Amino acid sequence: VLQARSNALCQNPVNPNQYKEAMRALLVAMQGWISAGKAPPPSRFPSLASGTLVKPLPQREAGFPEIPGAKYTGEANHLYINDNDALFPKHVLNKQYAVLVPRVDRDGNDLPGIRSVALQVPLGTHLGWNLRRKGYMEDRSCYLDGSFIPFARYRVDRGNDPRPSLEERYGNKASYVRQVEAAVQRLRGEGFLLPEDAERLLKDARERDIGL
Predict the structure, then answer these.
(1) d(CA 119, CA 128)
(2) Which of 9, 124, 163, 172 gets the highest tally of CB atoms within 10 A of its CB?
């Protein structure tokens, strides 16, 4: 199963999803754009127009599933209006800008963006936020660490968790690897993955023990 490191102050394991593969591919694309005029891949980001940029609360509107044992507070970074007439600008605490967040899919993973292999063929929910444990400002934002909440291995194990188990998603290791191969090919075709990173991700998937 995908290993995620822990932070003693945070409630959940730390999000292991990586941006580096896409960044490397986009740096190469930028070089091609500058030197040869070759257009880079089109941007992918949430928006109001597409319905993928939403308020973090209520939870149902954000689309975040009810995962047993996982808290959802909907707390996002506060962005206050500043009073710049004062000698030292200060926050106007009763006036805030509206803060919106990406809508998530049925597993709680952000939409749309560049969907890495870890999001296209997930082993759990990858979040851009984490919460502090009891005794350390409980339920407040835990540094810049995201969260990883793994899926149950078998259907019988997931109880009330609405997220399908690994068994239900993939059936066996071979099916999981085939889906990773397809995701890698998609990302390669879209220009978001370099050949050497593609090979490494395929090797990792073939060697990973997902418990099936």
Answers:
(1) 13
(2) 124
Does residue 165 lie in a domain region? yes
SS3 of 189, please? helix
Q: How far apart are CA 106 and CA 164, in angstroms?
A: 9
* 7 is a domain residue: no
Handedness of CA 115, 120, 121, 123 (dihedral sign): positive
Residue range(s) defining the domain that contains residue 137: 20-45+106-207
| 63 inside domain | no
Virtual torsion, Cα 4, 7, 13, 18, nearest 10 deg: -50
Its pTM surpasses 0.85: yes
What is the residue-level pLDDT of the chain in tens, covering all 212 positions? 566 788 889 999 999 999 999 999 999 999 999 999 999 999 999 999 999 999 999 999 889 999 999 999 998 877 888 888 878 888 888 888 888 999 999 999 999 899 999 999 999 999 999 999 999 899 999 988 899 999 999 999 999 999 999 999 999 999 999 999 999 999 999 999 999 999 999 999 999 999 99
Give domain status of residue 133, yes or no: yes
Q: How many domains is the chain partitioned into structurally?
A: 1
